[in-house]
Amino acid sequence: MKVLSVLLLLILLTSCYSIERECSDFKTGTFEFSYTIDGVEQTSKFKRTENYNIDYHNGIADSSSVRWINDCEFILKKLHPTSNSEKDAIHMKILSTSENSYTFEYKLAAKRPNKPLNVEKGVATKIN
């Protein structure tokens, strides 16, 4: 009986917990994002408006269109792709937010036949 009571209490406590998602605070602004390629950590900056996302990496700007699905999800599509892989749209989803950052996941918007769908996660920090 004690085990059942403790289990019920745990279920009640965890069901009241919800992840904070104030996605509208991160629809626009300037952000930083750190990632690792071949064991080397790199940082990229990007600026997002309602309709565009401009990435700045190694002094080169790269623009994408932004189409919002809802307050926490949007589709990025490169405006000037330089390869076939850059033509694919990316689905971005904000998973949680804090005061000045958000955790997100991203994947290809359309699954390619006979290839696994890779979902990656990251954290972006709002700097302006």
From TrEMBL:
Keywords per UniProt: Signal
Residues making up the signal peptide according to the UniProt record: 1-20
Provenance organism: Winogradskyella eximia
Stored PROSITE patterns: PROKAR_LIPOPROTEIN
The name this protein goes by in its record: DNA topoisomerase IV
